[in-house]
TrEMBL record:
Pathway annotation: Polyol metabolism; (R,R)-butane-2,3-diol biosynthesis; (R,R)-butane-2,3-diol from pyruvate: step 2/3
Homology family: Belongs to the alpha-acetolactate decarboxylase family.
The EC number(s) this enzyme carries: 4.1.1.5
Pfam families: AAL_decarboxy
GO molecular function, one term: acetolactate decarboxylase activity
Reactions the enzyme catalyzes: (2S)-2-acetolactate + H(+) = (R)-acetoin + CO2
Listed SUPFAM superfamilies: AF0104/ALDC/Ptd012-like
Name of the protein described by the UniProt record: Alpha-acetolactate decarboxylase
């Protein structure tokens, strides 16, 4: 039986800051740790969302692709879904939604996941075009992102909330990806005006942090020289 209390994380957001963007985990390996998740591909190749065991990618051109088992990633989260209904919302803006979720969750100092199914208004997402080695820093690579918008779209948001004491390993607060029901639109969420739908919640008591110890660049890099927190928040905000 799968352990639904564990959040699995490969890599850290901090390793992306200096441009350590090699794919160090395959999709086949990631799916052994969950049927739900988010991430990015080698060279920041698009934005990933895993729903019901199927991995989808919004690539830099705005196309949704289903990924094969050999697709590699420098960073990803996954878990086995066991969401409980939290609340129904109607035409609520993003800031108010996050405030209500935090209050209802009462889980500020641990990891949890939020799943929202519903209709989102004026939503904007992004994806980065895949880059090749030698890689630029995260901040420079993120400048090449493409943004995509919809006036109204129905779909699923998957978000992971990380406590502030883990800022850098993850991004403190919410990190959210989206996929439309018709599988034509998605990506890392930059903003939306409002959502009407159902909010579900799943809390984790264990973070399983997996590091790319076979990657020489990662093992030899001096992170003390990097502006990790600011660069992570600027890129992921």
């Amino acid at each position: 039986m799968s352990n639904t209390n564990i959040l699995y994380q490969h890599g850290t957001l901090a390793l992306l800051v200096p441009g350590l963007l090699d794919g160090t985990l395959t999709m086949n390996e990631l799916l052994q740790h969950g049927d739900t998740g988010i991430g990015t591909g080698e060279g920041l190749d698009g934005e990933l969302i895993i729903l019901n065991g199927t991995p989808y990618q919004l690539d830099g051109d705005g196309k949704i692709n289903i990924l094969n088992d050999e697709f590699t990633m420098p960073f990803a989260n996954s878990h086995f879904a066991d969401y409980a209904e939290m609340m129904e919302v109607e035409d609520i803006n993003r800031d108010d939604l996050q405030s209500q979720i935090k209050e209802a969750a009462n889980s500020t100092n641990t990891f949890f996941s939020i799943k929202i199914t519903g209709t989102f208004k004026n939503i904007t997402t992004r994806a980065v075009r895949k880059s090749s080695a030698p890689y630029d820093s995260l901040s420079k690579t993120a400048e090449k992102q493409n943004t995509f918008s919809k006036d109204s779209v129905t779909g699923t948001l998957i978000s992971y909330h990380s406590p502030s004491l883990f800022d850098g390993a993850a991004v403190g607060g919410f990190h959210s990806h989206f996929l439309s029901d018709d599988r034509s639109f998605g990506g890392h969420i930059l903003s939306f005006d409002s959502v009407t739908g159902s909010v579900s919640f799943q809390q984790f008591d264990t973070l399983e942090q997996h590091l790319p110890t076979a990657n020489k660049e990662y093992m030899n890099h001096d992170f003390s020289k990097d502006n990790i927190i600011d660069d992570v928040h600027n890129a992921e905000g």
